Amino acid sequence: MTGIGWIQIALFCAVVLALVRPLGLYMTRVFAGERTLLSPVLAPLERGLYRLAGIDARHEQTWLGYGLAMLVFHALGFLLLYAILRLQEGLPLNPMGQAAVAPDLAFNTAASFVTNTNWQNYGGEGTLSYLSQMLGLTQQNFLSAATGIALAMALIRGFSRASAGTVGSFWVDLTRCTLYVLLPLCVGLTLFYVWQGIPQTLGAYVEATTLEGARQTIAVGPVASQVAVKMLGTNGGGLFNANAAHPFENPTALANFVQIVTIFALGAALTNVFGRMVGDERQGWAILSAMGALFLAGTAVTYWAESAGSPVLNGLGLTGGNMEGKEVRFGIVASALFAVVTTAASCGAVNSMHDSFTALGGMIPMINMQLGEIIVGGVGAGLYGMLVFVVVAIFVSGLMVGRTPEYLGKKIEAREVKMAMLAILCLPLMMLGLTAVATVVPAGLAGPANAGPHGFSEILYAFTSAAANNGSAFGGLTGNTPFYNTTLALGMLVGRFFVIIPALVIAGSLAAKRTVPASAGTFPTHGGLFVGLLVGVILIVGGLTFFPSLALGPIVEHLAGAAGQTFSTGG
Amino acid sequence: MLRHLRPALVLLVVLTAVTGLAYPLAMTGIAGAIFPAKAAGSLVERDGKLVGSSLIGQSFTSARYFQGRPSATSAADPADAAKTVPSPYNAAGSAGSNLGPTSAALAERVKADVERWRAENPGQAVPVDLVTTSGSGLDPDLSPEAALFQVPRIARTRGLPEDRLRDLVGRQVQGRLLGILGEPRVNVLALNLALDDLAAK
After folding, report:
1. How far is CA A360 from the centre of its chain?
2. Cross-chain CB nearest to B23 (options A183, A253, A310)
3. What number is the average pLDDT over the span A506-535?
4. Which of A168, A326, A499, B70 is most buried per CB count within 10 Å?
5. Is the Cβ pair B93, A126 closer than 8 Å?
6. Phi-psi region of B131 (alpha: psi -120 to 50; beta: other; left: phi over 0)
7. Does the residue A293 lie in any domain?
8. Do A356 and B140 touch (CB under 8 A)?
9. How far apart are CA A190 and CA A227, in angstroms?
10. Which of A455, A453, A457, A433 is nearest to A445 (CA)?
11. Rounded to a whole number, what is the distance in Å from the CA of A390 to chain B's nearest CA?
């Protein structure tokens, strides 16, 4: 670890924090339907769209109506994406003549992008046409991100309203998020990224003759426009197989810095939107503090582990940390920071290969996802995931003092706690349950590329990433098989919708409650005590659930590596 | 359910057209007009011939050139399309090795590479980036240490004085942005183009 490394991390934190209030204010205004800077341009478009769709922008929905609208929209989006992937061979904008995507891979990829996971079982440049990348993937990058933010807005309204029957309109939230938040930011970011060197072209792959006279086919494409939204919307699905490690997706240290800032920007700002809407910004800062404490702890461990390097390679006389799977322009610190950010948020883009991280360095990304990606988290998904934990933390504190728990003037009762636990429990069921299945059936055991405990980690990481809707991978796992395509898709769908639906039930239930005035016995939820309690509950729930599986994978691998032991396949 | 169908269909179709077609196509047009060279992939020509991209590493195996990092990319086997064969710096199939920290295959590969480089410069520590594959398999850069490590060999094979080569590397080093962001690095293609120019003089 170096001083300059810590300065890079501090600079990153400072820039994200500086963006929280301005972005929070802007988004609060957008979702309240107030006029913003962009209204003169976008408001007519928005009104035309509502007229065409038969939407009354003032008509709000109950939690059930909101949820049904979201599900119908997703079902149609899923079918559209599946159809584009299956038919890409005959559709335009296919200069490389990519063939139709196989049914199981198309199913997996459609589930992956509709759930904001963006797991890549497809190999980007070798599989997909430009039309599939743009019309299929870039589109879902926007809409799945907008859906996440819309659902967070519904849950925030549940906390901020009293005696109300509705939680907002899904159609309006989705449209406003796409048009006013995501699209304008992506236009600016795309131009910035092209300036940094990211290609944006519809031309065919380039044929060059290298200095040594060999032929080199260089894949290009409409890269910048997709990179912009894949980071901002915490999607993470790259145009290329190597994702943000590819120099065309991430050419410079500055492009890299902006990418990790944009992964966190909207998720962090949503805590401020929450604070503003419940009438006390400190409530938002308290939640962001809990996220920040967990984030810094994870960053320190990963940075330390990668700087220290792998004992096996260090034994060969190498110094300078673990550079296997990392790019020179990013080095150790920017690779470690990216890995923690992308898994803390539900992004899943990678600028280095997590599979080649040291055992402990690769464990932190796994823990980030297992906690439910509530450390800033996916846009929207991180906030509603965190608020689910808040409900549990408030319930625990209520038990300790023997009072009916309250949060922001709302009594937290049996229905909310049950739904919160349902949302929290469905993740380990998918992550650990499917891992258990894959480690006993031959089709599952055929997947890992590495032997020994690292092979187990590859499987565990895959289902953890799928159920958490992250999308990053220990990439050695051969995931493009009928077994993994279907089981991972199942994990993604359950991990998305079995958190969303309980969160919506909580939203509806809270919105209908009356507000009780604060009294001397009310537990203040904007102070350090509450932050500590929340972090404690998250770590206890996560730790008790996942520690045994981590012991079988990264922890035993760390101990084996320290003893100089290696594992070979086929032996 | 049914009353949700019309808004869902209309929003899906219109927002798909906006975000999936209008946005990327407009950005392609605008970016191509403002930054034509970068939008096309930062391609590099020499004597009118396309030699690669300044952002994409290429394979150097000759002792006369600075060599980049090992690359884990592969390509379809010409003999059997179902299999793959190693194909370093395949810019149409980016990939890392994905070998974990306790992989015997990784340890053996690194050991062999370390011994090969040690033979070139006995007694010197081998820079770590020279014996590890990058995440993309297309890393265009080396650390300045890894480039300087190769100077004695280039001096021998090209018959150039070492101090002039060290100057050459020094001029090609790109530092951290504002002294803070990123890592110092040398672009291998640019370095080798400059090397050819130096040798031609």
Report:
1. 21
2. A183
3. 89
4. A326
5. yes
6. alpha
7. no
8. no
9. 8
10. A455
11. 32
CB atoms within 10 A of CB A98: 17
d(Cα A116, Cα A492) in Å, to the nearest integer? 9
Helices A414-438/A453-467 angle, 10° precision: 140
Q: Are A313 and B110 in contact (CB under 8 A)?
A: yes
Contacts of B180 in chain A (CB under 8 A): 4, 7-8, 11
- A-chain residue closest to B87, CA distance: A216
Q: Six-digit token pair at B15?
A: 């927002």
Round the average pLDDT of chain A to a whole number and report it: 92
DSSP β-bridge partners for residue A200: A222
> How many interface pairs between A and B have CB atoms less than 8 angstroms apart?
388
Model pLDDT for residues A23-33, shown as the tens digit of each residue: 999 999 999 99
d(CA A134, CA A360): 37
Cβ-based neighbours of A212, under 8 Å, separated by 6 or more:
B58, B59, B60, B61, B62, B65
How far is Cα A160 from Cα A158, in angstroms, rounded to an integer?
6
Q: Where does residue B197 rank: exposed (0-12), middle (13-18), buried (19+ CB within 10 A)?
A: exposed
Within a 10 A sphere around the Cβ of B178, how many other Cβ atoms? 10
Q: Which of A53, A257, A557 sits opposite B6 (nearest CB)?
A: A53
Q: Could you tell me the two tokens for A401?
A: 């003092």
- Does the pLDDT at position A571 exceed 50? no
Q: ipTM value, please give it.
A: 0.95
Query: Using CA atoms, how far apart are residues A99 and A372, in angstroms rounded to an integer?
Result: 36
User: Residue A396: which domain range?
Assistant: 379-562
Optimal mutation site among A9, A178, A211, interface B, most CBs of chain B within 10 A: A211
Q: Are B78 and A228 in contact (CB under 8 A)?
A: no
Query: B177 to chain A: which residues are within 8 Å by CB?
Result: 252-254
Considering only CB atoms, B4 lies closest to which of A69, A242, A475, namely A69
Q: What are phi and psi of A473, to 5 degrees?
A: -145, 155
Please report whether residue A68 resides in a domain: no
Indicate the residue type of A85.
L
A532/chain B closest Cα distance in angstroms: 33
Contacts of residue B142, defined as CB under 8 A and 6 or more positions apart, other chains included, come to A328, B66, B68, B69, B129, B130, B185, B186, B188, B191
**Helix (H) or strand (E) run with residue A206 in it:** strand A206-209
Nearest to A373 by CA among A363, A385, A362, A364: A385
Give the percent of chain A with pLDDT over 90.
Answer: 75
Residue B10: list chain A partners with CB under 8 A. 49, 52-54
pLDDT tens track for A260-298:
999 999 999 999 999 999 999 999 999 999 999 999 999
Q: Say how many domains are in chain A.
A: 1
Chain B positions in Cβ-Cβ contact with residue A457 (cut-off 8 Å): 100
